[in-house]
Amino acid sequence: MSPNITLILVSSALIGTGVYLLLARSIVRALVGFLLMGNGINLLFMVASGPAGEVPILGEGEGGPMADPIPQALVLTAIVITLAMTAFVLALAHRAWQLGRDDLLEDDEESARIHRRAEENDLAGESEDDADVIAAEFAEEDD
């Protein structure tokens, strides 16, 4: 039996949309992206687990082929973890809204400085041997 192409397309759409939203600067959009991506991956687990069968409890079926219980257990565990992550990110979003009335993440100036410095070094053509000199310059800037 071949996998259901509709479920694979729905799973791909959920994962793709989730990744797009996860890259947003808004905490709420990132949360929705995480939820969509998690549901798409759970659906993909179920599609990849093979055809449906009897319940995986001995003595409950009528002797037909049983379904594999491992993917079902993994999906159940993923649902619980997703619920916990959702609660945590909602608490972060609520706190960010209380503090700044905005849920957009700000630029990290230290990260931007490091990226600028790396681009300058790439343009200057510095080699890996100059790593100690660069580290010393960073230490001087921090002082």
How would you describe what is shown here?
By secondary structure, the chain is mostly helical. It has two domains: 5-100, Helix Hairpins (Orthogonal Bundle), CATH 1.10.287; 109-142. It has helices spanning 5-22, 27-48, 69-100, 109-124, 131-142. α1 packs antiparallel against α2 (27-48) and α2 (27-48) packs antiparallel against α3. The protein is elongated.
What is the compact description of this entry?
By secondary structure, this protein is mainly α. It has helices spanning about 5-20, 25-50, 70-100, 110-125, 130-140.
Labels describing this entry:
single chain; mainly alpha; Helix Hairpins; 70% helix; 143 residues
SSE diagram, text form:
Blueprint (H helix, E strand, L loop, with lengths): L4 H18 L4 H22 L20 H32 L8 H16 L6 H12 L1
Tally of separate domains: 2
**Which fold does the CATH topology of the largest domain refer to?**
Helix Hairpins
Stretches where pLDDT is under 50 for at least 5 consecutive residues are none
**What is the overall shape?**
elongated
Rg, nearest Å: 24 Å
